[in-house]
Protein 1
Amino acid sequence: MPGERVYPEDAAGSFPTPPLRITDSDGREITVDAFTGDADAEIDALVAMYDDFDPEDRAQGVPPVGESRIREWVASLLEQDGFDVVAWHGEEIAGHATLVPDDDATYELAIFVHQTYQGAGIGTELINALLGHAQASGAALVWLSVERWNRPAVALYEKVGFETASAESFEMEMAIRLNDDTG
Amino acid sequence: MKVLVGIGGADDSLVALEESVRRAVDTGDSLTVGVVANPESNRDPSALVDAATAALADAGLPTDVRELSGDPGSALVEVAESEDFDQIVLGGGKRSPMGKIKLGHIAEFVLLNSRTSVKLVRDDAG
């Protein structure tokens, strides 16, 4: 059977829980915090980031293109019982990281950083905060898929502790174990 | 145009079949359905042959439906090349919980190995 995913045997170390306050490498004050989307203004800020997202940075068809499709996609992410964190720069959202549950009590991870804020260390903090948030809530297994030519992304995932889980396809899968108690 | 639709029973392959039938009715494409065994699908090949035959008959098209044995990707490529098909049509992949597209293994093989042009049908509702 192709595409079996292998998780690391050992649980990763402990990740910091949000909120995280950082100054990025361009001197911007950024707050990474858990995101529920309970307020319409927060949803609007997230949709605005994706609506202005560089099409070149899309991956495997996400985010979708066009405001109404983006709004539907964001709603579908938030209505599932997963975890979300965003990076705030004032009233503006600089990046978003999300864990979406799938059928097997595991979570799929994705992260998006707006082009204005890339290369400033925000992605690392978003992933750390997202994994810390999920780890503190008892989540155990997280996977992601990444196009294998996207070296900067793969390097970032390796840095936080993801390992290659399956590499037989155009895109590769990586996985991390956050807690020992399940899986 | 002479078109070979490959179906292995994954949902996206059935979308590809539907779309190809619609197009053949509109354009007069000559349509052949190749049923392959997809290890990623639970649907039974002989049931797929029956379903595809019925779909073609319902649309008033000739019912050229074949069950192909052996490795699914290479069987499709082989038929397309040996019988001078103009195009292979396959399902365009499924979406993860996140919404990311992932191509099936048969589609990946055919894309890389086929000399015949390949069309992937995407389910716009996905």
Protein 2
Amino acid sequence: MKKWFVLISMFFLMSCAHEQKEQQQSLQQENITNVSHDGSAKRSDQQQAKRAVDMLKEREDVKDAVAVEANGRLLVAYQVKHLHRFRMKQIEKEVGKALNEAFGKKVIASHDLKIFWKTKALKEKIDTKNISEKEIEKEMTVIQKLSEEQT
Amino acid sequence: MANEKRKNLTPVQQEYHQFEQDRETKRPVLKNCVRAFFVGGLICAIGQAISYFYMYFFDFTEKTVGNPTVATMVFIAMLLTGFGVYDRLAQFAGAGSAVPVTGFGNAVISAAIEHRTEGFVLGVGGNMFKLAGSVILFGTFSAFVVALIKTIAVKWGGLG
């Protein structure tokens, strides 16, 4: 019994330690996106993407957001805070409506984690390497196709 | 036993009932619940790790990652059942190992192992889905009923 108690408490401590690390990571992520915001501001073709990110970050239920734009298309990926995920459909509807109203161009919005990772990688690529709009569009099409997959 | 029924018993039967109740081993319900909670949670955490693996290294989204994750979890549970590890885990965790999808893999393979001596077709093939078959049947049927209720509610009830 004592052995189990020790094991269970060890498990608890380990999960607590990881949670702290995760919190730190998410804070770091926020810093990274903040830093990259400054980077994207330099590119004049990413102004609306920056506006979309700022708009989403104002929402209480959105944890993090990242956006990329190219050739009249705006790709927005966001993460919803854990307990707010119960209202995911409603949030999805609200965000989609708000983005469509604010931006005249075709908006692709997704709360999927994989889409978030992919969009973030693309954004970092745009910030660090000076890739052309055609290449951005090509990658955006791949991400859009991925986000539309059903099974 | 219900009080109504107990009244109909003879004094000797009532005495035996009391005798039995005094000596009956008490079930450690709380301990079982704690064990099931932790082991079930651990299995779910492993499942979450596998789904993150598929999302990170392959082109699966949160929407599509469910299928490969479930298949992998069931496959791992089948291997562990074959090696005799899952049975020990099930003895310790009870519902914690039976309720997650890994319990399904265990049910299929344990039935197959049990009836192996009766031959591959009539033994393994015929008895493999003895327990898991009902799970599939009830799962499919209840999904059909829920989908029917939802369709009716959306079409005529104005929901959604």
